[in-house]
């Protein structure tokens, strides 16, 4: 399998999951501005949405969207328990988290990045929204070690990938002690350490 990624982007989530699952894969860096891969290929010809993460399967099929990709990865290795079995309530609560992280965090973070000329008034609205969401997450992490409960799941890789964007914004999460402790703990996982290293982030 081949994962198309950009350093520190949301593609970090499937990158972590590929390592957690212990699957064979390679990574290909994408210049998202110019839609070119590191070897100069036209990324739009590979993945017409022009976005990472894009996973190219061994049969050359293309899979996009963080939530679909990480669920696909987890399903390749059910014995690793990276997602609860379909049909259990745990499974639906994990999907509930994936949806929340995607729509309430991921998409609200994107306009805060300096490359996007977002009007200041809208930035203020997004920061307020994100603080409410992150404060809720902090309250959940006060009760459980991982975002869906007692075990690390695909939702944690996604939450980690988007929460590590906080330092690139003006958000102050110093009072969210549970979220900060969680981020430090997740960073210690070998899969996360190795993914960050492979992406040139540490
Ligand atoms: N809906 C997509 C969004 C993916 C996304 O936002 N990717 C960003 C990087 S974090 C990207 O590729 N940005 C470049 C672009 O949108 O042109 C998903 O959930 O995977």
Automatic annotation (TrEMBL):
One of its GO terms (molecular function) is transferase activity. Gene3D superfamilies: 1.20.1050.10, Glutaredoxin. Residues 1-81 form the GST N-terminal domain. InterPro entries: Glutathione-S-Trfase_C-like, Glutathione-S-Trfase_C_sf, Glutathione_S-Trfase, Glutathione_S-Trfase_N, GST_C, Thioredoxin-like_sf. Keywords: Transferase. It comes from the Bacteria. Residues 87-202 form the GST C-terminal domain. SUPFAM superfamilies: GST C-terminal domain-like (SSF47616), Thioredoxin-like (SSF52833). Pfam families: GST_C, GST_N_2. NCBIfam families: PRK10542.1 (NF007831). This is Glutathione S-transferase.
């Amino acid at each position: 399998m081949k994962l198309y990624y950009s350093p520190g982007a949301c593609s970090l989530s499937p990158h972590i999951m590929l390592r957690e699952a212990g699957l064979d894969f390679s990574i290909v860096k994408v210049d998202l501005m110019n839609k070119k891969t590191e070897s100069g290929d036209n990324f739009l010809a590979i993945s017409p949405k022009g976005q990472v993460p894009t996973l190219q399967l061994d049969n050359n099929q293309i899979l996009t969207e963080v939530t679909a990709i990480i669920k696909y990865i987890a399903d390749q290795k059910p014995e690793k328990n990276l997602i609860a079995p379909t049909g259990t309530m745990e499974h639906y609560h994990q999907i509930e988290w994936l949806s929340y992280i995607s729509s309430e965090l991921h998409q609200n973070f994107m306009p805060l990045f300096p490359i996007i000329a977002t009007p200041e008034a809208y930035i203020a609205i997004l920061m307020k929204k994100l603080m409410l969401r992150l404060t809720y997450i902090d309250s959940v992490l006060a009760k459980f070690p991982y975002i869906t409960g007692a075990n690390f799941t695909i939702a944690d890789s996604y939450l980690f990938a988007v929460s590590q964007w906080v330092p690139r914004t003006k958000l102050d999460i110093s009072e969210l002690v549970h979220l900060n402790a969680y981020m430090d703990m997740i960073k210690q996982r070998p899969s996360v350490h190795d993914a960050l290293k492979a992406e040139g982030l540490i």
